[in-house]
Specification:
There is one protein chain. This protein has about 375 residues and is of the alpha/beta class. Helix content is about 35%, strand content about 20%. The chain is built from 11 helices and 13 strands. α1 packs across α9. It is globular.
Length: about 375
């Protein structure tokens, strides 16, 4: 059982649905094959089939009490069912903590489950959970920090997929270090999503000697994440995270861009798009002779599956860190997997550091 990666999920929404489906979809992936959709089939001796779900937490009365395999397909979840026959997992969705996890617009479609919050620490310990994944809604600042305290008490690693800043903050880094636990965060990057595309194109311009004058990234979608972000007060950390993910690439080259010349962030909720996310991206600059030029592109992706493969890698790296006794923020993997890591490397450097981490901490073959 030491080789298994026991994973608990906070927030059983579309991202959780894609993650659970994906673990079953790829369970038979072979080490010697190039498998579409996966960055690593075998990651340091850990395969997809080594991931086991141990616990799940939510506040939606339509999900609490259901088996995780059923809850991931319960409305308002609307992502693609690419593996609709997930077997019963015998993992009930426990009543989680609300705090600020339920905003104005989500409260119009989600009714809180009755009863008190379950004993999170006890559940994580009893289920022998290794890694906890945070999928709370954007803006859940207090709820996330409350859960982090439970995770520290339970002795679990943490993968923070939302833009509440934990891994990048010195205070929380110190807390995880003092407990001997690793953390990866903050705010998940998709495999090929709006942020990674924007970063790559930004570096392409800069690598070719073309400073960026103006740029924007506008995103629309129809899932509960976009609905939640209609509440502008919950959006500040998301905009900060997405903007810094791009702006950091410009600043690393010793250049700067005024706040008025860069706009990155969710733009609107379009119900019929469901879990499909559409990104409109524009970069303006000057090439040889100061002659103006611009680039525009449109990206359409199913939002939740696009991040699930990244989380599949992140939880396995967190397990490697646990086994190796490595604690605190994992800087290389965080930079590769997340929009707001402790240190913003470029994506080539982040990937190189992640591969080095995997090689150095791979499980020893007995």
């Amino acid at each position: 059982m030491a080789k298994k990666v026991r994973v608990a999920i906070i927030g059983v929404g579309n991202c959780a649905s894609s993650l659970v489906q994906g673990v079953h979809y790829y369970s038979g992936a072979k080490d010697d094959e190039l498998v579409p959709g996966l960055m690593h089939v075998n990651l340091g001796g850990l395969r997809i089939s080594d991931i086991e779900f141990s616990a799940a937490f939510d506040i939606d009365k339509n999900k609490v009490g259901k088996d995780l395999a059923e809850a991931i397909f319960t409305k308002p979840n609307c992502t693609t069912r690419f593996f609709p026959n997930v077997p019963k997992l015998d993992i009930p969705v426990h009543r989680g903590m609300t705090h600020d996890g339920l905003g104005k617009y989500l409260s119009e479609i989600i009714e809180k489950a009755p009863g008190p919050t379950d004993n999170i620490v006890q559940i994580l310990k009893e289920t022998k959970t290794d890694v906890v994944v945070n999928y709370l809604p954007v803006g859940s600042e207090e709820a996330t920090k409350w859960y982090v305290e439970q995770i520290l008490d339970a002795g679990c690693a943490f993968v923070n997929c939302i833009p509440v800043f934990i891994s990048r903050e010195k205070y929380w880094q110190g807390r995880f270090e003092s407990m001997g636990l690793p953390v990866i965060g903050d705010d998940i990057k998709s495999q090929v999503g709006a942020t990674i595309l924007h970063r790559v194109l930004t570096n392409l311009f800069l690598d070719r000697g073309m400073p960026i004058d103006h740029t924007y990234q506008l995103n629309t979608g129809g899932n509960t994440d976009f609905l939640n972000m209609l509440e502008r007060s919950r959006l500040s950390s998301k905009k900060e995270s997405k903007t810094n993910a791009v702006k950091s690439q410009i600043e690393r080259r010793g250049q700067s861009i005024d706040a008025d010349d860069i706009h990155v962030g969710p733009s609107d909720f379009v119900a019929w798009q469901k879990d499909n996310k559409i990104c409109f991206l524009r970069i303006e600059g000057k090439h040889f002779g100061d002659v103006p030029m611009n680039l525009e592109c449109r990206l359409s992706v199913e939002d939740s599956p696009n991040s699930a493969g990244v989380v599949i890698d992140a939880v396995r790296i967190a397990k490697l860190a646990l086994v190796a006794g490595i604690s605190g923020s994992l800087e290389g993997p965080s930079s590769y997997f997340m929009k707001s890591p402790p240190i913003q490397y470029d994506d080539y450097e982040a990937r190189k550091r992640t591969e080095k981490f995997i090689k150095q901490n791979a499980l020893k073959v007995k």
